[in-house]
Hints:
Layout lengths: L19 E6 L11 E2 L4 E2 L4 E3 L7 E3 L3 E12 L11 E8 L2 E2 L5 E4 L6 E12 L4 E8 L9 E2 L5 E2 L2 E9 L3
Antiparallel strand pairs: 1-3, 1-14, 2-11, 4-5, 5-11, 6-10, 6-14, 7-8, 7-9, 7-11, 12-13
Amino acid sequence: MCNNCYSPCPCPLPPVFSHYSNVFATEAAPKIPRQNEFVPLNTTDTADWTINPLDNTQLVCQNPGIWTILSQYQIDYKETGLPDEENTVSGFFNLNGENVAASDAAQSCSRDSPKSVLAIALVLNFQKGDIVRFGVRGSSASAKIQGFLDDDDVFAPSLIITATRTGSGR
Length: 170
């Protein structure tokens, strides 16, 4: 199977790289409170990064180099009726099966502040085939990322990832 387009080899088209990519996820996560989960991804708009069709939590680098990755977790607090001591959503990066040091952050949420954004930026030198996963953990059933309609009825994805290639790396 081709790594560029996931068609049978040989690849019918060479990749055209744009040196940027936007990736979106629309599923709510985490499914289970107080457990680390990887966010399922839905779409990417360039050949620089592809979503593994066999595991849609894996974003695969096709264009090696130094990349700035900005992930924006859309927090949507939903009151569950359960007594929650803490409502926090944490996010983190995972590269090739290992959590990336100093890539985690947390954002609190409550009924007084039901919608917020947890943003995490990371700059790394990626090789072709490197796999990035975006993790999330909610401290309660009320704390999760979730897509929602804004005031203009435009759907905001649960996770927005913007990747920009900033150098050729090694």
